[in-house]
Amino acid sequence: MVKEVKPNDVTFTAMLTSYSHSRLINQGHHYFYSLESSYGITPLMEHYACEVDLLGPAGELDEVESLIRAMPIVPNEVVLGSLLGSHSVHKKLELGERLMQEVIQIYPLNTEYHIPLSNMYAFAGKQERANSLHKILKDRGIRKIPMTSSIHVGGQVHQFSVGDKSHPQTREIYLMLCEIIRRLRLAGYVPYTDSQVFSGFGKDNEDEQEEKERAFFFHSEKLAICFGLMSTGDGAPIYIFKTLQIAKIVSLE
């Protein structure tokens, strides 16, 4: 830490965020617990959110829950949602159910955190409960906003959604994607589709599996990546925005 510059709460939010993204658990943990004792900064909601996001994916769920219960301020949906996402990643269904009830009571209209629980049900083989949760949301008029992925090429921003066919170069994009899929299959790659939910199909239905794989392969960031490969030179970096799912895919390979 540079002695001439006194860090403030924003400084530590940026630091903790970087440690979280880099999964530098020990360093982030150290600075979080040094905020008040060493720097005289009372931890804010943003700092707690960073600590939860740091420890949760590492599987330190008990420690995270103890931290949240001991917070001097009421945790917001970002903090609780981050913990719920960690339960989803580590398949802690019972804990996820209990936490989800708390999130729903505080923020009933936020669908972002309903989806992880339905995915957890699907992964656990509880397809009916997963479909039931989707039906409840639909009946209440609540829907998940589709995620989009964007790429900046040639001075323009190109945006894609799952199964998107609105781009002028749609045919070329899908041809490249199909070629990539073909090579992946030849290499033995099998898509991870257990946690995807499609209402109206049985768990072992071949049509359901085909639909899941189609949604998986034609996800928005894959379309953006294919367009990027087509539109940039060899070795050029490709930057995709809002690629939340791609991080999970990479971690599973």
Keywords:
mainly alpha; 12 helices; disordered C terminus
Commentary on this structure:
The structure is a single chain. Helix 1 (9-22) runs antiparallel to helix 2 (25-39) and helix 3 packs antiparallel against helix 4 (61-69). The chain has helices at 9-22, 25-39, 45-55, 61-69, 77-89, 93-106, 114-123, 127-139, 170-186, 206-217, 220-231, 244-252; strands at residues 148-153, 156-161, 240-241. By secondary structure, the chain is mainly α. Mean pLDDT is 76; it is low at 198-204 and 243-253. A hairpin with a 2-residue loop joins strand 1 and strand 2.
Summarize the structure.
This protein is mostly helical and 253 residues long.
Measured by DSSP, the beta-strand proportion falls in 5-15%
Which structural class do the helices and strands define? mainly alpha
Number of helices: 12
Distance between the termini: 37 Å
Q: Which sequence of SSEs, written as H and E, runs from N to C?
A: HHHHHHHHEEHHHEH
List the helices and strands and how they pair.
Layout: H1 9-22, H2 25-39, H3 45-55, H4 61-69, H5 77-89, H6 93-106, H7 114-123, H8 127-139, E1 148-153, E2 156-161, H9 170-186, H10 206-217, H11 220-231, E3 240-241, H12 244-252
Antiparallel strand pairs: 1-2, 1-3
Helix pairs in contact: 1-2, 1-3, 2-3, 3-4, 3-5, 4-5, 5-6, 5-7, 6-7, 7-8, 9-11
